[in-house]
Amino acid sequence: MINIILGILSTIGALSILFASIGLIRMPDFYLRLSVTVKASTLGVGLFLICAAIMFPDDISVTTKAIAIIFFLIITAPVAAHMIARTAYITGTPLWKETVIDELHGMYNQETHELKSDPEDAQEDNDEQTDSANGQIADNEEATQ
Amino acid sequence: MTLGTYFDYVILPILTLSVLLVFIRIAKGPSVVDRVVALDVMITIGIGIITIYSIRQNEEVLLDVAIILALIAFLGTIAFSYYIEKQKDD
Questions:
Q1: Which residues of chain B lie closer than 8 angstroms to A84, CB-CB?
Q2: Across the interface, which of A24, A49, A84 has its CB nearest the CB of B81?
Q3: Burial (CB count within 10 angstroms: exposed 0-12, middle 13-18, buried 19+), residue A42
Q4: pTM of this prediction?
Q5: Which residues are listed as membrane-spanning (chain B) (predicted)?
Q6: Rounded to an integer, what distance in angstroms lies between the CA atom of residue B12 and that of residue B54?
Q7: Could you read off the pLDDT of B73-84 as tens digits, one per residue?
Q8: Taking CB atoms and an 8 Å cutoff, what residues of chain B touch A50?
Q9: DSSP class of residue B62?
Q10: Is the Cβ–Cβ distance between B73 and B43 less than 8 Å?
Q11: Is the ipTM here above 0.85?
């Protein structure tokens, strides 16, 4: 029974790691590669470590080490992915040509690397768009009157 | 088919294939950040291989190596991203 559980867990772990590396090869963009890879590989290694914890039931130090490694991976993998994605965006890694929206466009100060999240600061960049939107609203009001 | 032969003939070859695929991305990645992410994934797969190997050999001491590798992967990615970002300023 325990063998069946171990087989299922290790199979899911190996397949998720395989899918992560296939995604790393096949995805067209750095950001898509990052979002595919980090989660799947963390899941696979976590399942392997759960296998190890079940496999050595006599020794409690193995269970402690496995839980420590899983906890450390779950804490650190998103932080590392966020840091490298921020660096990639600042250094100008190109987006995929079919990317629909880039919400960070014009929000980063290129010299101080500060992120502006205030809409009023970003207002200057979007003046043309808001002007055209106001024009459309005015046109609609005239049409209704 | 026992669990040991399943680990030896199915799980470990799948992990080896994954490491080879990741190495293709390290070799041809168009920018530096691609290579950094591929290196991170390769070390993570290495933690998995060490875990399976320690299960097969009944050597639970090898899990200490996995702890150190997890630490090195995190610190390496953080250091790479910090210095690549600084490189842009100059």
A1: 33, 36-37, 40, 77, 80-81
A2: A84
A3: buried
A4: 0.82
A5: 6-24, 36-55, 61-84
A6: 12
A7: 999 999 999 999
A8: none
A9: G
A10: yes
A11: yes
